[in-house]
Queue: 4 jobs
Job 1
Amino acid sequence: MTFTVTNHKTGTEFSVEPSETILDAATRHGFGFNYSCRSGSCGSCKGLLISGSLESPTEPQTALSEADIISGQILLCQARPSTNLVIEAVELPAGSSLPIRTLPCRVTALEKACHDVMVVKLKLPQNQDFRFLPGQYVDILLRDGRRRSFSIANWTSIEEGLELHIRLVPNGHFSGQVFNSLKVRDLLRFQGPFGTFFLREDSDQPTIMVAGGTGLAPIKAILESAFLDKTVRPFHLFWGVRNARDLYAHDLLNQWVEQYDNFKYTPVLSEPQENESWTGEYGWVHEAALRHFPDLSQVDVYASGPPPMIEALKSAFEDAGLAIERLYFDSFEYASDSA
Ligand SMILES: Cc1cc2nc3c(=O)[nH]c(=O)nc-3n(C[C@H](O)[C@H](O)[C@H](O)COP(=O)(O)OP(=O)(O)OC[C@H]3O[C@@H](n4cnc5c(N)ncnc54)[C@H](O)[C@@H]3O)c2cc1C
Ligand code: FES
């Protein structure tokens, strides 16, 4: 049976097919809601259930606390209606929901950027219309049916293909293949674009960007696009890694500092080596950002990287006055079949 979902905030109405999630149905109808992981872990798709009921969840909804559940919060990426529903959720501007495609691609380069990050370049078939927004991600579709999410790290013409920054995860199924057996000219399949981690054009407030490790990838694409568009808003990027050898794009970022007056960059090391002659910032990257910006009431924040970094940042930045609707994040959750 098909049900209707109405967004009380905007009056938007759309139908949901049996067993379809609210998020999938909204995307199919061309409506955009915030989301990132699509697996119930990151919480960026939270909305409020005002009336109606849902099917019992099939996946653990780790992003919802007891208090969230009591107050009627739901995860749009997991919620499947069992009646007509009225919800309340922030809706994205028209044009932010692009068609999702499944395409083959060929590996054109494998560049080891540092000891545990591979820059993988992928060429798409000619004459295929693949559109994405800088900051979005794709799912690599593996032969056994599993999928792995990676952010698109570049914003150039589609003829130049896609660039991914893939960190080697200990015992990682796909990242292990990337480091050990993937070769130039191999074919892969992917699906995308996914996610709503892109620059909001409705603001010219100073923008703080916080990246952890390969969380730099979507931020690099967003910055490349902003520089190309000659965006004047100020950007300050804080990039956290363990030690100096992990700063795999340090030269490029320093070059951008020279090139663009509105760009600042602060690298932050959490576990510097004893013999490292490092004179920069130490500690957790979000704490370094707070040392520079103790009052966050007049800024926008874009953050991407490991889930613990995003969780710590959310509460610390809210305490420093950040309006939660001005925080945009991509939490690099692990694939649900990983554990
Ligand atoms: C929206 C989104 C965008 C992402 N973008 C990127 C990106 O641009 N670059 C990137 O490197 N990663 C990115 N990730 C994370 C990446 O998808 C996962 O790390 C993925 O599980 C790696 O696949 P794998 O097959 O190598 O490891 P898996 O086989 O999935 O994992 C093997 C084991 O390692 C653990 N594990 C998995 N990932 C991590 C991790 N990151 N840190 C610590 N332990 C882990 C798992 O729990 C499991 O036990 C993104 C994730 C999301 C949701
Ligand atoms: S919890 Fe729904 S997108 Fe992450």
Job 2
Amino acid sequence: MRYALHWGEARITNMRDVSRDIREFTIVPEHGARPYAPGSHLNVGVIVDGQPDHRSYSLVGAGDGACYRIAVRRHDDSRGGSRYMWSLGEGARLSVTEPHNLFEMEFGRPEYLLLAGGIGITPLIAMAAALARSQANWRMIYAAKSRADAAFCDELTALYGDRIETRFSDEGRRLDLPAEIANLADGAQLYLCGPLRLLDAARSAWGSSGRPLADLRFETFASGGLYAPEVFRVKIPRLGIDLAVPTDRSLLDVLEGAGVEVMADCRRGECGLCALDVVAVEGEIDHRDVFLSDHEKQNNEKICACVSRAVGGAITVETAYRP
Ligand SMILES: Cc1cc2nc3c(=O)[nH]c(=O)nc-3n(C[C@H](O)[C@H](O)[C@H](O)COP(=O)(O)OP(=O)(O)OC[C@H]3O[C@@H](n4cnc5c(N)ncnc54)[C@H](O)[C@@H]3O)c2cc1C
């Protein structure tokens, strides 16, 4: 999961709004753009609360060797990484890494289904291009709240015609995941990028279909849970800790800020390193990670401190940290 990040300077050369809250940025790195495989992302330096930080953005399209394209959805209820990106103008300088890929494709399968939920379309655009180039048997289903929210939809339809199917909530067309999965050829793969609810539904339908779990490939953007973030208290009685976790900070941020060392790596709910033992919950846990199993989430014995939150009260946890 951990890899060395090599940062370099870059410049935004073009920007365009591709939906009402998604903006595409064309970025030219000083030392040239590298080729990359579909599913790759860039890490981009941002300023959050006056402090340097970084956010990851999937590379849009196949790349032309001269520049990178990313598309950023503006989150108003967030710590501020996307708002920072939206504050930049053409000509702005920023730091970026080389492309990295944690969402790799495998070629040569009899059929592929690409499933995008909202901003999750970004890594799938390069995948569609690669599948089209290799003359694979593929389809994409693009689910979004409405057509106006579905960035790049018209461009994809113009390129690939009826391989692109849409499911817009405001048009009332339901996504029937068990049926979509049942109709796939044996040996098919599903590539999914979208919100946690969509991933949970796909994992459950894929699991029930008896297909190999490794053939459901996904990436999440750690973007939200079942509930809107709300303030809750975190308690560690052994350390005398009783703190409020504000809406714009994670449980991990608050514990680290109080001097509690918590092992952490990916910070987006994938690696499980920051999972803490839950001693008591007043209210509910909004599990936002993709590391714990459904069973573990139901039992509420662990919480991934980087992304998951409590709603409606407080949580008492225990850590391995000994001051
Ligand atoms: C590999 C990868 C690729 C990505 N690609 C894209 C992409 O192509 N386009 C794109 O727009 N984004 C992408 N992202 C997400 C992106 O990196 C940022 O997370 C996103 O821009 C939001 O950053 P933020 O600081 O504005 O919001 P964050 O503060 O990170 O908040 C994001 C969401 O989490 C919730 N949230 C807010 N505060 C908290 C909190 N304290 N604790 C828990 N949850 C909270 C909010 O409800 C919000 O919906 C990608 C992420 C990864 C890991």
Job 3
Amino acid sequence: MYRFKPELRIPGPVPVPNAVSLRMAQPMINHRGKVFKERFPSILSRLKPLFGTTNPIYMITGSGTSGMEAAVSNLVSPGTPVLCLVGGFFGKRWADLCQAYKGKVHVLDFPWDGGIDPNRVREYLAQHPEIELIFVVHNESSTAVLNDIEAISKARGNHQALLVVDAVSSLGGTPIEMDGWDLDVVISASQKCLMTPPGTAFISVSPRAREYMEKCEASRYYFDIRKYEQFMEKGETPFTPNINNVFALEEALNMIEAEGLDKVFARHILMRDMMRAGAKAVGLELLVGEKDASPTVTGVKFPNADSFRARIREQYGVEFAGGQGVHANNIFRVGHMGYATPLDVLIALAVLEIDLGKYGEATKVAEKVMNR
Ligand SMILES: Cc1ncc(COP(=O)(O)O)c(C=O)c1O
């Protein structure tokens, strides 16, 4: 039903605004030509308020994982002692990547339904002064948890370790203060809160991390940040970039700036609160408590979630995401990031209450939250 207008309510890729799609349809340009060189650096630097940094930002053509691999391949030499904070599927990806680059990988595991405890990080670091790098996920999309990165960063105290943050599903939807929180590397991707199609990743590097990269002995070529840095001096990327996504980013940033970053963040909080209140109102249990709840995605417990999702997709054209790892088939996830409004949350809640025979119960409560 209604497949011509699917309601994509997953934690990325997100729906792309028409204005962004139209901008992508403009004629192709030369990535070594005048127009690209003039526009590209200024478009990228408009991401700085979203990263909360004055550090340079580089764009890599590849998915979010290419940003993660760029971070690891420029930092982790064989045998480098690293600490991966794992509370979900993407935290585990950091550990897998560090393993692939032959780091000496320490893993601190956390339950997959809550945030990373900074006290445990502090204790672990006190016992392991040799750790050189810490890898963490800001918004763990698989569990719908927003980790307190500022507290994790502070938990380092005077420890030497650099902090590397995956902000793939948080950047542009919730505040990140790379400089204010003393983060060393932050990576993100195009298809989440930035409202553009998949295909580009972004990485920002602190001066301390940049210096550390010089001594990295890992093999790298496509992801060598030094190449991106050199080419950025000319306003270019080392390899042919996803030019359409650069056009898209320019238009998406126009929209974000017109709304105002504070209002963008407030909209995400509002959607989170509506979704949580509505799901509870129809008797569903949320995966994550209020303290750790993500502003960009909500996880809802549901037995046989995958057949429920298939039914919702077939009957109403609304697409929810499934669970990952230990949560496979036990939860569904509702994305409310990027090009999403409170009305989209009401649609998500409406199909829930219809399916559960609880007419009006979720939307009534959510509407109250919307007008609070
Ligand atoms: C938090 C987080 N990190 C990393 C990724 C990986 O991104 P990609 O699938 O674009 O490689 C995702 C994708 O959903 C994500 O949500």
Job 4
Amino acid sequence: MTPTWYREPSETPVFILTITAVLVLVGLTAGLTVCIVPIIVLIILVMSYGSTQAHHQELMKSATPVSPTLTPELYALVKQCERELQPGDMEVYVTNSREMNAYTFGLSTPKVVVLYSALFDVMDADELKFIVGHEFGHAALGHTWLNTLLGGMAGVPMPIGAAVLLTLAFRWWNRICEYSADRAGLLACGSLNSATRALVKLVSGPIHSEEQYDRIMAAIDAEDDNIMNVLAQSFATHPMIIDRIEHLRSFAAEKRIR
Ligand SMILES: [Zn+2]
């Protein structure tokens, strides 16, 4: 046996003391984290609530509300989408912008959908139904508040590795939410062709001929052939358009929507 009798007598008690101190500190830090996380999430939720309320107020001043008197045709279209998807209490606004975009937000009711005016220069009625239905889908499925909640959790300070993992998971969920909202858009417009054209026009802008449409479609089709695009998608909040179209095609086939 190796002789150890010459060990300095205080070595063992000090070692035990050190180990105890480490365990106590780890325990305290973990406990503190467990207590602090809900507080940080709550603070972020309250701040988000405040900023969405302010954004709503701002829209009421600067954007056009969709109403039977101000925008009768669009109002009828929005009501059709509402009947189809029953997303709950919704307010829809049109804001002046040359950008082609739409979004929804709100932690409480009514949820708000904002449509950018450029959409009306490019989309026909069925394509617009897809866009409105997509946003109603986000609202109906609770994505607006789930996004804020998950975003709040992602705001909690954490080691860089954990933050990257969390971001990847969050974005993955974001992308699946887009597929779900696209399904709602398809149900609202009832046509795979219109849903696909709406998605294509969102990236291409106006389309003037079928040849132009086929050319753009071929370019979109090649999107997922590039490995860099596929890798970049892991960090994106939205899937590639070709993936969205392919998901729509299989959902349409499943539900016999043509
Ligand atoms: Zn979306």
